[in-house]
Protein backbone atom coordinates (compact mmCIF):
# COMPACT_ATOMS: atom_id res chain seq x y z
CA UNK A 1 0.00 0.00 0.00
CA UNK A 2 1.36 3.42 -0.96
CA UNK A 3 0.75 6.38 1.37
CA UNK A 4 1.77 10.04 1.54
CA UNK A 5 3.11 11.64 4.70
CA UNK A 6 5.78 13.82 6.32
CA UNK A 7 9.03 12.65 7.91
CA UNK A 8 8.96 13.74 11.57
CA UNK A 9 12.10 11.98 12.84
CA UNK A 10 15.37 10.65 11.46
CA UNK A 11 17.44 8.28 13.60
CA UNK A 12 20.05 5.59 12.88
CA UNK A 13 19.09 5.19 9.23
CA UNK A 14 15.35 5.03 9.91
CA UNK A 15 12.82 7.65 8.84
CA UNK A 16 9.61 7.96 10.82
CA UNK A 17 6.76 9.16 8.62
CA UNK A 18 3.51 10.57 10.03
CA UNK A 19 0.24 10.41 8.12
CA UNK A 20 -3.31 10.72 9.41
CA UNK A 21 -2.16 10.51 13.02
CA UNK A 22 -0.11 7.32 12.60
CA UNK A 23 3.70 7.10 12.50
CA UNK A 24 5.39 4.50 10.27
CA UNK A 25 9.01 3.35 10.48
CA UNK A 26 10.64 3.37 7.04
CA UNK A 27 13.96 3.19 5.25
CA UNK A 28 15.05 4.99 2.10
CA UNK A 29 15.49 3.07 -1.13
CA UNK A 30 19.07 2.75 -2.40
CA UNK A 31 18.25 4.67 -5.58
CA UNK A 32 18.13 7.93 -3.58
CA UNK A 33 21.88 7.61 -2.85
CA UNK A 34 22.58 6.95 -6.53
CA UNK A 35 20.75 10.17 -7.42
CA UNK A 36 22.61 12.12 -4.72
CA UNK A 37 19.38 12.62 -2.76
CA UNK A 38 18.64 12.02 0.89
CA UNK A 39 15.33 12.26 2.74
CA UNK A 40 15.37 14.64 5.72
CA UNK A 41 13.01 15.55 8.53
CA UNK A 42 10.21 17.76 7.22
CA UNK A 43 10.15 16.17 3.77
CA UNK A 44 6.81 15.19 2.30
CA UNK A 45 7.16 11.70 0.84
CA UNK A 46 5.35 8.81 -0.77
CA UNK A 47 6.11 5.50 0.92
CA UNK A 48 5.09 1.88 0.79
CA UNK A 49 3.72 0.09 3.83
CA UNK A 50 2.62 -3.46 4.33
CA UNK A 51 1.29 -4.74 7.65
CA UNK A 52 3.97 -6.30 9.90
CA UNK A 53 6.80 -5.21 7.59
CA UNK A 54 9.18 -2.27 7.25
CA UNK A 55 8.10 0.55 4.96
CA UNK A 56 10.20 2.15 2.23
CA UNK A 57 10.31 5.76 1.03
CA UNK A 58 9.60 5.75 -2.70
CA UNK A 59 9.48 9.43 -3.64
CA UNK A 60 10.53 12.80 -2.23
CA UNK A 61 8.10 15.61 -2.96
CA UNK A 62 9.39 19.06 -3.92
CA UNK A 63 10.85 21.10 -1.06
CA UNK A 64 10.12 24.80 -0.58
CA UNK A 65 13.29 25.32 1.49
CA UNK A 66 15.70 23.52 3.77
CA UNK A 67 18.54 23.76 6.27
CA UNK A 68 21.76 21.77 6.29
CA UNK A 69 22.44 21.99 10.03
CA UNK A 70 20.33 20.28 11.10
CA UNK A 71 18.99 18.61 7.96
CA UNK A 72 15.34 19.72 7.90
CA UNK A 73 13.02 20.82 5.08
CA UNK A 74 9.79 22.72 4.44
CA UNK A 75 10.14 25.23 7.28
CA UNK A 76 7.53 27.96 7.73
CA UNK A 77 9.28 30.14 10.27
CA UNK A 78 12.28 30.39 12.59
CA UNK A 79 12.51 31.84 16.09
CA UNK A 80 15.84 33.63 16.58
CA UNK A 81 16.72 33.73 20.26
CA UNK A 82 18.97 36.59 21.33
CA UNK A 83 19.88 37.40 24.92
CA UNK A 84 20.24 40.80 26.57
CA UNK A 85 23.41 39.74 28.42
CA UNK A 86 25.73 36.72 28.76
CA UNK A 87 26.20 36.68 25.80
CA UNK A 88 25.62 40.36 25.12
CA UNK A 89 22.98 41.37 22.61
CA UNK A 90 24.45 41.75 19.10
CA UNK A 91 22.62 43.55 16.30
CA UNK A 92 25.28 42.37 13.88
CA UNK A 93 24.69 38.71 14.67
CA UNK A 94 20.92 39.20 14.62
CA UNK A 95 21.08 40.76 11.16
CA UNK A 96 23.22 37.84 9.96
CA UNK A 97 20.51 35.44 11.12
CA UNK A 98 17.87 37.58 9.37
CA UNK A 99 19.86 37.70 6.11
CA UNK A 100 20.26 33.93 6.24
CA UNK A 101 16.52 33.36 6.76
CA UNK A 102 15.45 35.90 4.14
CA UNK A 103 17.70 34.16 1.64
CA UNK A 104 16.16 30.79 2.56
CA UNK A 105 12.60 32.10 2.30
CA UNK A 106 11.87 31.43 5.98
CA UNK A 107 9.85 33.93 8.02
CA UNK A 108 11.83 35.20 11.01
CA UNK A 109 10.51 35.79 14.53
CA UNK A 110 12.78 37.36 17.17
CA UNK A 111 12.66 36.36 20.83
CA UNK A 112 14.69 38.33 23.39
CA UNK A 113 15.68 36.31 26.46
CA UNK A 114 16.93 37.38 29.91
CA UNK A 115 14.86 40.57 29.97
CA UNK A 116 14.52 40.07 33.74
CA UNK A 117 18.27 40.59 34.10
CA UNK A 118 18.21 44.15 32.78
CA UNK A 119 19.45 46.60 35.39
CA UNK A 120 17.10 49.55 34.96
CA UNK A 121 14.14 50.99 33.06
CA UNK A 122 16.37 52.85 30.60
CA UNK A 123 17.81 49.53 29.39
CA UNK A 124 14.32 48.08 28.97
CA UNK A 125 13.26 51.12 26.94
CA UNK A 126 16.22 50.46 24.65
CA UNK A 127 14.73 47.07 23.78
CA UNK A 128 11.26 48.55 23.38
CA UNK A 129 12.74 50.96 20.82
CA UNK A 130 14.51 48.06 19.13
CA UNK A 131 11.21 46.17 18.89
CA UNK A 132 9.49 49.21 17.40
CA UNK A 133 12.24 49.66 14.79
CA UNK A 134 12.33 46.03 13.67
CA UNK A 135 8.55 45.67 13.60
CA UNK A 136 8.52 48.51 11.06
CA UNK A 137 10.79 46.38 8.88
CA UNK A 138 8.35 43.48 9.22
CA UNK A 139 9.72 41.30 12.04
CA UNK A 140 7.67 40.17 15.03
CA UNK A 141 9.55 40.48 18.33
CA UNK A 142 8.61 38.89 21.66
CA UNK A 143 9.84 39.25 25.22
CA UNK A 144 7.68 36.53 26.82
CA UNK A 145 6.76 32.95 25.95
CA UNK A 146 2.96 33.29 26.15
CA UNK A 147 2.84 35.72 23.24
CA UNK A 148 5.36 33.65 21.29
CA UNK A 149 3.35 30.42 21.67
CA UNK A 150 0.35 31.94 19.89
CA UNK A 151 2.44 32.27 16.73
CA UNK A 152 3.31 28.57 16.49
CA UNK A 153 -0.11 27.25 15.45
CA UNK A 154 -0.27 25.51 12.05
CA UNK A 155 3.43 26.25 11.40
CA UNK A 156 6.65 24.25 11.21
CA UNK A 157 8.99 26.28 13.38
CA UNK A 158 12.71 25.91 14.04
CA UNK A 159 14.54 27.56 16.92
CA UNK A 160 18.01 29.01 16.49
CA UNK A 161 20.22 31.46 18.27
CA UNK A 162 23.60 32.36 19.62
CA UNK A 163 24.98 29.70 21.95
CA UNK A 164 24.25 30.60 25.55
CA UNK A 165 21.29 32.84 24.73
CA UNK A 166 18.89 30.43 26.47
CA UNK A 167 17.49 28.54 23.50
CA UNK A 168 17.59 25.12 25.16
CA UNK A 169 16.23 26.56 28.40
CA UNK A 170 13.33 28.12 26.50
CA UNK A 171 12.55 24.89 24.65
CA UNK A 172 12.66 22.86 27.86
CA UNK A 173 10.16 25.32 29.34
CA UNK A 174 7.65 25.30 26.48
CA UNK A 175 8.25 21.72 25.26
CA UNK A 176 9.62 19.57 28.13
CA UNK A 177 8.90 16.41 26.12
CA UNK A 178 11.90 17.25 23.92
CA UNK A 179 14.14 16.51 26.95
CA UNK A 180 17.00 18.64 25.70
CA UNK A 181 20.20 18.72 27.71
CA UNK A 182 21.44 22.18 28.62
CA UNK A 183 25.11 22.60 27.77
CA UNK A 184 27.22 24.37 30.35
CA UNK A 185 28.49 27.84 29.49
CA UNK A 186 32.23 28.13 29.19
CA UNK A 187 33.56 31.30 30.86
CA UNK A 188 36.66 31.10 28.70
CA UNK A 189 34.87 30.74 25.36
CA UNK A 190 31.60 32.44 26.26
CA UNK A 191 29.59 29.71 24.60
CA UNK A 192 27.88 26.46 25.43
CA UNK A 193 27.88 22.87 24.23
CA UNK A 194 24.90 21.68 22.24
CA UNK A 195 23.92 18.06 22.79
CA UNK A 196 21.27 17.32 20.14
CA UNK A 197 21.61 13.67 19.04
CA UNK A 198 19.04 13.49 16.26
CA UNK A 199 16.51 15.60 14.35
CA UNK A 200 12.84 15.41 15.26
CA UNK A 201 9.64 17.43 14.91
CA UNK A 202 7.51 17.78 18.05
CA UNK A 203 3.88 18.82 18.29
CA UNK A 204 3.43 22.05 20.23
CA UNK A 205 0.70 24.68 20.41
CA UNK A 206 -1.05 23.34 17.32
CA UNK A 207 2.13 23.30 15.22
CA UNK A 208 5.42 21.44 14.83
CA UNK A 209 8.74 22.61 16.24
CA UNK A 210 12.37 21.54 15.90
CA UNK A 211 15.57 22.49 17.63
CA UNK A 212 18.73 23.56 15.80
CA UNK A 213 22.33 23.55 17.05
CA UNK A 214 23.57 26.67 18.77
CA UNK A 215 26.38 28.61 17.17
CA UNK A 216 28.17 31.91 17.59
CA UNK A 217 28.90 32.49 13.90
CA UNK A 218 26.84 31.94 10.79
CA UNK A 219 27.53 31.01 7.18
CA UNK A 220 24.66 32.98 5.75
CA UNK A 221 25.06 31.57 2.21
CA UNK A 222 24.69 34.93 0.49
CA UNK A 223 27.59 35.32 -1.93
CA UNK A 224 26.44 38.00 -4.38
CA UNK A 225 25.28 41.61 -4.16
CA UNK A 226 21.73 41.22 -5.60
CA UNK A 227 20.91 38.49 -3.07
CA UNK A 228 22.33 40.59 -0.23
CA UNK A 229 20.22 43.54 -1.34
CA UNK A 230 17.07 41.37 -1.32
CA UNK A 231 17.93 39.96 2.12
CA UNK A 232 17.44 43.41 3.67
CA UNK A 233 13.69 44.00 2.96
CA UNK A 234 13.70 47.73 3.69
CA UNK A 235 16.80 48.29 1.53
CA UNK A 236 15.37 46.16 -1.28
CA UNK A 237 12.17 48.21 -1.26
CA UNK A 238 13.89 51.60 -1.29
CA UNK A 239 16.54 50.51 -3.82
CA UNK A 240 13.88 50.41 -6.54
CA UNK A 241 14.35 54.19 -6.67
CA UNK A 242 18.13 54.02 -7.26
CA UNK A 243 19.42 55.43 -10.56
CA UNK A 244 21.43 52.30 -11.31
CA UNK A 245 19.79 48.89 -11.37
CA UNK A 246 22.72 47.13 -9.67
CA UNK A 247 23.48 49.93 -7.22
CA UNK A 248 25.59 48.78 -4.27
CA UNK A 249 24.46 51.79 -2.17
CA UNK A 250 28.03 52.83 -1.50
CA UNK A 251 29.53 55.27 -4.04
CA UNK A 252 26.89 55.53 -6.78
CA UNK A 253 25.16 58.88 -7.46
CA UNK A 254 21.39 59.28 -6.97
CA UNK A 255 21.22 56.31 -4.59
CA UNK A 256 17.77 56.12 -3.01
CA UNK A 257 19.08 53.99 -0.14
CA UNK A 258 21.68 56.56 0.96
CA UNK A 259 19.00 59.25 0.73
CA UNK A 260 16.65 57.17 2.88
CA UNK A 261 19.49 56.71 5.38
CA UNK A 262 19.95 60.48 5.62
CA UNK A 263 16.18 60.85 6.15
CA UNK A 264 16.32 58.24 8.97
CA UNK A 265 14.02 55.93 7.00
CA UNK A 266 16.61 53.14 7.24
CA UNK A 267 18.36 52.26 10.50
CA UNK A 268 22.02 53.25 10.53
CA UNK A 269 22.90 49.94 12.25
CA UNK A 270 21.20 47.95 9.48
CA UNK A 271 23.03 49.91 6.79
CA UNK A 272 26.35 49.43 8.63
CA UNK A 273 25.76 45.68 8.82
CA UNK A 274 24.79 45.62 5.15
CA UNK A 275 28.12 47.31 4.32
CA UNK A 276 30.04 44.78 6.42
CA UNK A 277 28.43 41.83 4.65
CA UNK A 278 28.99 43.54 1.30
CA UNK A 279 32.68 43.91 2.18
CA UNK A 280 32.91 40.23 3.08
CA UNK A 281 31.36 39.25 -0.25
CA UNK A 282 33.81 41.48 -2.14
CA UNK A 283 36.81 40.08 -0.23
CA UNK A 284 35.68 36.54 -1.01
CA UNK A 285 35.41 37.46 -4.70
CA UNK A 286 38.87 39.09 -4.70
CA UNK A 287 40.39 36.05 -2.99
CA UNK A 288 38.76 33.71 -5.53
CA UNK A 289 39.94 35.88 -8.45
CA UNK A 290 43.54 35.89 -7.15
CA UNK A 291 43.45 32.13 -6.70
CA UNK A 292 42.22 31.61 -10.26
CA UNK A 293 44.88 33.97 -11.62
CA UNK A 294 47.63 31.98 -9.90
CA UNK A 295 46.25 28.74 -11.33
CA UNK A 296 46.24 30.18 -14.85
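-> sequence recovered:
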Amino acid sequence: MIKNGRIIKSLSGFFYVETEGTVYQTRARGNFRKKGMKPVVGDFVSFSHEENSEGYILELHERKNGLVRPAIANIDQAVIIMSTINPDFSLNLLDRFLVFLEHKGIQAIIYISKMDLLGNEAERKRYEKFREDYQKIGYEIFFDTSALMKNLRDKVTVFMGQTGAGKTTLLNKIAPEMKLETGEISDKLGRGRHTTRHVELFELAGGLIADTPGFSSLDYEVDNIPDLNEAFPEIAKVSQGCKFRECTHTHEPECAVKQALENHEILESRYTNYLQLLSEINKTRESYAKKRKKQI
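The chain is about 30% helix and 25% strand.
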